Amino acid sequence: MTRPQSYTITLRPEPEGGFTVLVPAFPEIVTYGEDVPEALAMAKDAIELSLEHRIAEGMDVPVPEDTKVEHVTVLVPA
User: Fold this and answer.
1) Do residues 31 and 21 make contact, with C-beta atoms less than 8 angstroms apart?
2) DSSP per-residue codes, 29-49
3) Closest Cα to residue 40, out of 20, 66, 57?
4) Burial class (CB in 10 A: 0-12, 13-18, 19+), 43
């Protein structure tokens, strides 16, 4: 039986282009995409592979966190 789960991911822009992808619920996942659609696809593939491995090894499946991401603007002294 399968059920949909949503996990928070972080897309970190890289100076040379593209995005490094991190998945807080899966610390073992670090992947990369040349653009946002590719980064999202890579994240999905990596999460699915990690889930398969965890289930095969009898490990816990991470519970999706209900994380809200906000930005805070501060003044940086010159």
Assistant:
1) yes
2) -EEEESSHHHHHHHHHHHHHH
3) 20
4) buried
Work out the mean pLDDT of the chain and round it to a whole number: 93
Q: Does residue 67 have a pLDDT over 90?
A: no
Check: pTM over 0.90? Answer yes or no: no
Using left for φ > 0, alpha for ψ between -120 and 50, and beta otherwise, residue 46 falls in: alpha
Query: Do 42 and 32 meet the contact criterion of CB atoms below 8 Å apart?
Result: yes
Phi, psi of 15 (to 5 degrees): -55, -35
Show the domains of the chain with their CATH numbers.
1-78 (3.30.160)
Instruction: Give pLDDT tens digits for 18-35.
Output: 999 999 999 999 999 999
Instruction: Categorise residue 40: left if φ over 0, alpha if ψ from -120 to 50, beta otherwise.
Output: alpha
